[in-house]
Design a protein that fits this description.
The protein has about 270 residues and is α+β, with helices and mostly antiparallel strands. It folds into three domains: about 1-55, no CATH class; about 65-130; about 140-265, Serine Threonine Protein Phosphatase 5, Tetratricopeptide repeat. The chain is about 50% helix and about 20% strand. It has helices spanning about 1-10, 10-25, 35-45, 50-55, 140-160, 160-175, 180-190, 200-205, 215-230, 235-245, 255-265, and strands at about 65-75, 75-85, 90-100, 105-110, 115-120, 125-130. The protein has a three-stranded antiparallel beta sheet with strand order 1-2-5, with no helix packed on it. Strands 4-3-6 form a three-stranded antiparallel beta sheet. A hairpin with a 4-residue loop joins strand 3 (about 90-100) and strand 4. Helix 6 (about 160-175) packs antiparallel against helix 7 (about 180-190). The chain is extended. The chain starts with a helix and ends in a 10-residue tail after the last helix.
């Protein structure tokens, strides 16, 4: 993500040159992030300390808010606005997407500090303005908060701390109650805990709604099938495996597992005493 943002800041050509020369210069040698920064600055022709300090040495991401007013100006329109966010030392170019009655326009705005005023002119009347529509900048958006909480939860699962994992997954659901991935991960924890009565609740909805990511649908069917097998409900289990096969989604071998348990019921591993 940091490299992607650097490309946005210095441009495609300078970024490509930086990476190419850096790879050649340090081939077969150890290299540090400071070495890469020095190479980037050579090609950019200016210091990039604020960029690397902001994204490599610090923590936090901006949450942008935009207020603006549209005025009639000659044959076109003028938009006077202000982008605000909470990071006092933040400094990055940010793209504005302006949907108008005519063509859509993209404007690059330098955002510095907590409040950055801007003025842009358009030919068509502005109807909607979006901040960073192409995701050039890492943002503390709702989607980002969900992804962070889910990743933290998965880390706790790896550590065997299921209670903390469930708290993180619930945080994700608090932000987006329709997060298929958060619901799936909660059900996964319940399955690992052999809490079969609770597990079907978060998994089941993906059988009827659009799942995101898509693989949660096929794996929800597989996991439900395993739960039904583990609780002696073979007919319901085979029905879930059948629905899994109908998705034609073999992400991480889901269809292979569904076929295996369709032929031979899933049996949970015995817990060591």
């Amino acid at each position: 993500m940091i490299l992607g943002m650097l490309r946005w800041v210095i441009g495609d050509m300078l970024f490509d040159n930086t990476v190419r020369v850096f790879a050649i210069t340090h081939a077969g040698k150890s290299a540090s992030s400071e070495d890469f920064q020095t190479e980037a600055e050579k090609h950019y022709g200016s210091k990039l300390q604020s960029f690397f300090s902001q994204w490599l040495d610090s923590t936090g991401a901006p949450e942008f808010k935009n207020k603006y007013t549209v005025y009639r100006a000659g044959k076109g329109f003028r938009v006077a606005g202000q982008i605000s966010q909470d990071l006092d030392l933040f400094s990055m170019p940010v793209e504005l997407k302006i949907d108008t009655d005519g063509k859509t326009e993209l404007k690059r705005i330098e955002v510095k500090g907590t409040n950055s005023p801007y003025v842009v002119e358009t030919f068509g009347k502005p109807r909607r303005i979006s901040i960073d529509p192409n995701d050039h900048v890492l943002k503390n958006s709702s989607e980002f908060k969900v992804r962070v909480a889910i990743q933290r939860g998965q880390d706790f699962v790896q550590q065997g701390d299921f209670e903390s994992a469930l708290r993180e997954f619930q945080k994700a659901l608090d932000v987006n109650k329709n997060s298929s991935l958060a619901q799936y991960r909660i059900a996964e924890v319940f399955f690992l805990q052999r809490n079969y009565q609770a597990a079907p609740t978060p998994i089941a909805p993906h059988s009827t709604v659009m799942a995101s990511p898509r693989w949660t649908e096929v794996w929800s069917h597989v996991q439900l099938g395993k739960i039904f097998d583990a609780t002696g409900q073979r007919d319901r289990a085979t029905n879930e495996y059948r629905q899994a096969l109908q998705t034609n989604d073999n992400t991480q071998g889901a269809l292979d597992e569904a076929r295996r348990y369709q032929q031979k019921p899933y049996q949970r591993e015995k817990q060591s005493s």
